[in-house]
Amino acid sequence: MTLLLVASPLFAQYARLSTSHHQAGDGPSASMFQLASERTGVLIERIRTSRYPELQTTQIQARPFKSTSDFFRARPRMPDFFMKWNLRYVILVNPGAYELKVPEDGVEAIIAHELSHVAYLKKRNRLRLLTMVRLLSKSFAADFDRRTDLDAISRGYGEGLKVYRHWLYQHIPQKSLAEKRRNYLSSEEIDAVLLRIRQCP
User: Rounded to the nearest 10 degrees, what angle do helices 104-122 and 30-51 cross at?
Assistant: First the structure.
């Protein structure tokens, strides 16, 4: 009972995303959602093959979702949490990213960022994954995503993250900007990290 209560915020969030996915496929734009999933799936395979050796045997699926402020998200498949030994993961893609012409190097970088989330989650056992409810805390969420940025940068996606964030901040509601800027490294911070990497390879 305690397990279910602790996990319920994450499970509820997964349920909302799954509902969005099904609703998306019911309308005339179903093909758009399918194409976005397929394109993202191809990129996931290419990026993890070249930069994420620890994820080679991990099952990761691309699925569409709707959002006005988010374009990519990574999650474990919550039903697996209770029913399977090996967790499978989902990278959710908002087809609006491709409609709004997200730059290719930018989308590769943000998918790398999401794969870094998966790599982090994969190293945690189920009990430790329950602590992810702390993402409901603004300070923990910011620290979590900034550390994930650092991992993606260490794998060669720093410049792409800068391109993606520049694009992102032009295509989300004004009310979401402050949260995004708090949660992710700025271009200046990424440049500082890249400079340190070049100085101390």
Answer: 70
Report the alpha-carbon angle 151-163-62, nearest 5: 65
Residue 76 exposure: Cα atoms within 13 Å on the Cβ side: 24
Q: Is 58 helix (H, G, I), strand (E, B) or coil?
A: coil
Phi, psi for 75 (deg, rounded to 5): -150, 150
pLDDT, tens only, 75-128:
888 766 665 567 889 999 999 999 999 999 999 999 999 999 999 988 865 555
Sign, CA dihedral 20-3-183-176, equals positive
User: From the CB of residue 113, how many other CB atoms can be counted at a distance below 10 Å?
Assistant: 23
Identity of the amino acid at 117: H
Contact criterion met (CB below 8 Å) for 59 and 34: no
Tokens of 142: 């910011």
Cα atoms in the 13 Å half-sphere on the side-chain side of 136:
11
∠ CA 187-110-159, nearest 5°, is 40
pTM: 0.80
The Cα–Cα gap between 52 and 155 comes to 8
